[in-house]
Specification:
heterodimer, A: 156 residues, Helicase, Ruva Protein, domain 3, 2 domains, 0% strand, B: 180 residues, alpha/beta, Glutaredoxin, five-stranded mixed beta sheet, two-stranded antiparallel sheet, 5 helices
């Protein structure tokens, strides 16, 4: 019970720390031009805030997110590419910081699992439809011959 | 037979959802496994909390395994963890280094005075920049660093007596076995 209560409290705290402040302006950074700002926004939108895990770095008001935004900004100023900046964060916080998980052995199921399930479903439909139409063709022949009202084929 | 196919499909879905629920209650979803395990600890040079003129570096700490415990006076869970450190800290068998994270030095000192100081040494990272190198994303966190300066174990969240017995002590025992 205590654990449940703690969880609820924790969820509330999270909601407060992440949600309520969201409408406020994110701390301003001294961008030199619009292109730099756009690049920064783009990049931080692809990175996850580790405190509020369903928020990206661009939107999160968590303290750590602010620190990481500053870090990303500094790395940009140092002339690092987007890939290098992402790698910098992945080295420290694992692939979890990336909103799009990279395609690799452990994520194959994640990336292609839904497609596999869709294909499996399609295969089942195709097989069923074929089997039915095959069962129906002789059945209708027989119906024409002896007009027996019920027979197999309507297994479903 | 084929009448049962939808039923089996349903059972499969039930099993899948059941697994999802079981899996999610079994582990802390906030916990992000650190990629730094078995990698050298990042280089750091941080001032001591009680004497900012003195700097502690990774190099200076080489030679003996130690625990880095990330804490802050503003961190609620650290308050929960603190009594455990106070009672178990001496018995763990490796020095306990406090890592004061994004904290006001005065508040940190007052906090340690009020709750007791289990640390042999406290270093302060006011800006939290070094903490990014450590992959810290929420206090408390605890790192076990071996004699060569390699991170061997990380705990995200409070250390509890159970966690110490189940995870930390075996990790420390493994270090002892390697370097007699």
């Amino acid at each position: 019970m205590n654990a449940v209560f703690r969880r609820v409290l924790f969820a509330l705290a999270l909601a407060l720390c992440c949600g309520a402040l969201n409408a406020q302006a994110i701390d301003p950074l001294p961008f030199k031009d619009h292109a730099e700002e756009t690049r920064f926004q783009q990049l931080t939108r692809e990175l996850r805030c580790l405190v509020c895990q369903n928020e990206n770095l661009a939107d999160s008001n968590a303290d750590l997110a602010r620190d990481l935004r500053h870090q990303v900004f500094d790395l940009m100023r140092q002339g690092k590419s987007d890939a290098q900046i992402k790698q910098y964060l992945v080295d420290r916080y694992s692939d979890f910081v990336l909103y799009d998980p990279p395609v690799q052995g452990s994520t194959l199921l994640l990336w292609f699992g839904p497609l596999a399930i869709l294909l499996a479903g399609a295969a089942v439909v195709v097989v069923t439809v074929r089997r039915r139409s095959r069962a129906q063709a002789p059945a209708s022949n027989r119906n024409a011959n002896d007009s027996s009202p019920n027979d197999e084929g309507d297994d479903w | 037979m084929s009448r049962l196919v939808p039923f089996f499909g349903f059972l499969l879905l039930v099993a899948l959802f059941g697994f999802g629920i079981w899996w999610n209650t079994r582990h802390d979803q906030r916990e992000v496994p650190s990629p730094l395990i078995n990698k050298p600890a990042p280089a750091y040079a941080l001032p001591k909390l009680d004497d900012p003129a003195q700097t502690v570096t990774r190099e200076a700490m080489l030679g003996k395994p130690y625990l880095i415990n990330v804490f802050a006076s503003w961190c609620v869970a650290c308050g929960e963890e603190h009594p455990v450190l106070m009672s178990e800290g001496q018995r763990i068998g490796v020095p306990l280094v406090g890592y004061n994270y994004k904290d006001e030095p005065d508040e940190a000192k007052a906090w340690l005075e009020r709750h007791g100081n289990p640390y042999g040494l406290v270093i302060a990272d006011r800006e939290g920049r070094t903490a990014i190198d450590f992959g810290v994303y929420g206090a408390p966190e605890t790192f076990l660093v071996d004699a060569k300066g390699v991170i061997r174990y990380k705990r995200i969240g409070p250390l509890t007596p159970a966690v110490i017995e189940r995870e930390l002590k075996p990790a420390i025992a493994a270090l002892r076995k390697e370097a007699p």
